[in-house]
Structure formats: C-alpha cells, structure tokens
C-alpha cells in the first residue's frame, strides 16, 4: 500500500462505522463489501416475506372461485376431493367479515405506506437517504418490519387449531359438547362466533388476518406484537421530533390539542 492509499484510508477511518471495517489491525479490505452484501440480503429477505404474504391471496384470486374441474389441479393433486380441500383451505385464508377485511387492508396497504413515509420522508430529515447513517438505522428497522409480517403470515397460515379447521368429533373424558358447532370440544376450548368453530385455548379473534389466536398460533401473535411495538416506539420518537421541527416554536402544551384534534383547530382557524 503506497502513501496515498494509506492517507486515503486514514481519512476514511474518521468516518463513522467505516472505522470498524477499515481501521482494524488486519485491514480487511472486503469488509465494507460484505457490509453492503448483508444489506442486500436483508432487503431480499424482506421482499421474500412480502411475496409470501401475497402469494396465497393472489393464488386464491386466480383459482379460488373457479370450479375444481376447470382448475386442472385435480391431476396435480391426485383427485378432485383433494382439490376441493385445497379450495376450502384457500378460502379459509381470506377474511370474510367486514371488520376483518378492513383491518387486514390496513395491515397490508396503509401500514407499509406509513413505513415508507418514515423511511423516505421523516428519517432523511436528519440522515440523507441511502447514506451510511441512514442505512445503519434502516437495516434493523427493516428487520423488525420483516419479523412483523413473517410472524403474521405464520399466525394466519397455521391457525389456532393447526392444520385442522374442525376439531375431532370423538367422545373423550373431559370434553364438552358445543351446541353452536355441534361437536365435542376439548377442555379449555371456546367457541368463536366469528369463525363459527371451537378454538383450542382461544385468546381472542384477531381481525388483522381474520383468524383466532389460540394454541398453535399464539407464539406468532406475540412475536409480531413485540416487533410491532418496538418499531412503533422508534418511529414515534422520530415523528415527534419531525413535527417539532415543522412547527414554529416546537411542540408546546398549548399546541398539543392542535396536534391531536387538528380538525377542531382547523374549524377555529388556528391553522
């Protein structure tokens, strides 16, 4: 390494995270390339997660309402009964109730727009987009968002009762008879009026996906909520700072009501 290259490297050592890669004793020249490769891999994983979420909905739109004989899937799946079972499982993944459709639409449409706003409008207020400081913060935030959607997809896919939509109709000590779904339900199971089926260890009916949270998908719900809480707390701090910069004089107690009820402030011409 000549003197000019060494001088250039010493200048880079003064810049943020590059010190970790270029100023180590071993002078690992490919460290920064590996760093960029890691960013690319995380972005690719996030894209694959979004594709996994929309895959079953797109498949249902293409095949779900078409008769099984015209789908030409019976040959692939072995017989027509298997194909009808596939249609039933695909139909189960699509929200049926109005509140479930609205909540799922918020999760799949408006929430990504909210994340996009923070990544490319609010965050660049302090850190230029795709700059080093921006990337250092955007990568872990994208990882949190990836975990939200991948755990949500597992929660919807597995369901509270596993792969079985109907509990086994067997007489077992400790079981109770459910008069709503006319079947014997295991202990600690409760009937969901929305899903119209008894749920193992039912916690609640989650409208964000149109599925109950129960025995087999409770862990995915907890993981999704945990990551959602973390990313919301981080973005809330950025949003407060962003609003404070946009308002003349910053955020004061007298202006809090204008922020939380802006339509009232607009009606009284405070804006």
TrEMBL record:
Membrane topology: Multi-pass membrane protein
Naturally occurring in which organism (per UniProt): Diploscapter pachys
Cellular compartments annotated: Membrane
Domain (Palmitoyltransferase DHHC) ranges: 175-247
Matching Pfam families: DHHC (PF01529)
Reactions it catalyzes: L-cysteinyl-[protein] + hexadecanoyl-CoA = S-hexadecanoyl-L-cysteinyl-[protein] + CoA
Protein name: Palmitoyltransferase
Transmembrane portions of the chain: 34-54, 101-122, 134-154, 220-240
Origin: domain of life: Eukaryota
Keywords noted in UniProt: Acyltransferase, Membrane, Transferase, Transmembrane, Transmembrane helix
Comment text on domains: The DHHC domain is required for palmitoyltransferase activity.
Family the UniProt entry places it in: Belongs to the DHHC palmitoyltransferase family.
InterPro entries: Palmitoyltrfase_DHHC, PFA4/ZDH16/20/ERF2-like
Matches recorded under PANTHER family: PALMITOYLTRANSFERASE ZDHHC16 (PTHR12246)
Cellular component aspect of the GO annotation: membrane
Gene Ontology MF terms in the entry: protein-cysteine S-palmitoyltransferase activity
Entry EC number(s): 2.3.1.225
PROSITE patterns, per the entry: DHHC
């Amino acid at each position: 390494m000549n003197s000019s290259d060494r001088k250039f490297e010493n200048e880079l050592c003064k810049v943020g995270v590059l010190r970790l890669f270029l100023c180590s004793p071993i002078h690992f020249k490919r460290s920064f390339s590996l760093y960029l490769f890691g960013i690319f891999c995380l972005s690719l994983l996030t894209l694959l997660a979004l594709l996994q979420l929309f895959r079953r909905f797109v498949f249902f739109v293409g095949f779900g309402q078409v008769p099984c004989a015209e789908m030409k899937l019976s040959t692939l799946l072995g017989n027509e009964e298997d194909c009808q079972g596939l249609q039933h499982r695909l139909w189960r993944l699509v929200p049926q109730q109005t509140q479930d459709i609205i909540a799922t639409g918020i999760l799949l449409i408006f929430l990504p727009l909210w994340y996009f706003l923070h990544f490319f409008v609010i965050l660049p207020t302090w850190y230029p987009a795709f700059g080093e400081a921006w990337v250092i913060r955007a990568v872990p935030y994208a990882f949190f968002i990836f975990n939200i959607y991948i755990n949500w997809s597992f929660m919807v896919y597995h369901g509270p009762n596993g792969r079985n939509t109907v509990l086994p109709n067997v007489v077992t000590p400790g079981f109770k008879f459910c008069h709503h779904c006319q079947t014997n339900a295991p202990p600690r199971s409760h009937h969901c009026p929305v899903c119209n089926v008894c749920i193992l260890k039912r916690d609640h009916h989650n409208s964000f996906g149109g599925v109950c949270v129960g025995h087999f998908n409770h862990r995915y719900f907890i993981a999704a909520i945990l990551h959602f809480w973390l990313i919301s707390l981080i973005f809330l701090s950025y949003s407060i700072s962003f609003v404070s910069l946009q308002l003349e004089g910053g955020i004061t107690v007298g202006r809090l009501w204008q922020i939380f009820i802006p339509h009232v402030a607009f009606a009284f011409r405070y804006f």
